[in-house]
Specification:
Largest sheet: none
Order of helices and strands: HHH
Structural class: mainly alpha
Radius of gyration: 15 Å
Strand content: under 5%
Helix content: 55-70%
InterPro entries: NCS2 (IPR006043)
Shape: extended
Main location: membrane
Protein name: Solute carrier family 23 protein
Subcellular location: Membrane
Distance between the termini: 39 Å
Number of strands: 0
Number of domains: 2
Keywords: Membrane, Transmembrane, Transmembrane helix
Length: 75
C-alpha cells in the first residue's frame, strides 16, 4: 500500500508541477515510532486525527507560500 500510494502521489505531484521538479515521493519510516507511541498513549482515533491535522497544516502552509511567495519563509 505504501509503495502504491507513493507512486500515485509522485504522479500527481509531477502533473501539478508540470514536471518541473525531479522528485519521488515516498513514505518515511521515521514516522513509525511516533505513530506507535501515539496509538499506545491516545488510541487510534486520536492519532489518526493528529496525522490528519498535520496534513491540513502542511497544505495550508503550501497555500500561504503559493499566494504570498517564498519570501515569507525568509523573513
Amino acid at each position: 500500500v505504501a509503495l502504491f500510494g507513493a507512486g500515485i502521489g509522485t504522479l500527481l505531484f509531477q502533473v501539478i508541477t508540470k514536471r518541473s521538479v525531479p522528485i519521488f515521493l515516498a513514505s518515511s519510516f521515521a514516522f513509525i515510532a511516533p505513530i506507535m507511541y501515539g496509538i499506545q498513549t491516545w488510541g487510534v482515533a486520536s492519532t489518526m486525527g493528529g496525522l490528519m491535522m498535520a496534513g491540513i497544516v502542511y497544505v495550508l502552509m503550501g497555500v500561504v507560500i503559493k499566494v504570498r511567495g517564498v519570501g515569507i519563509i525568509h523573513k
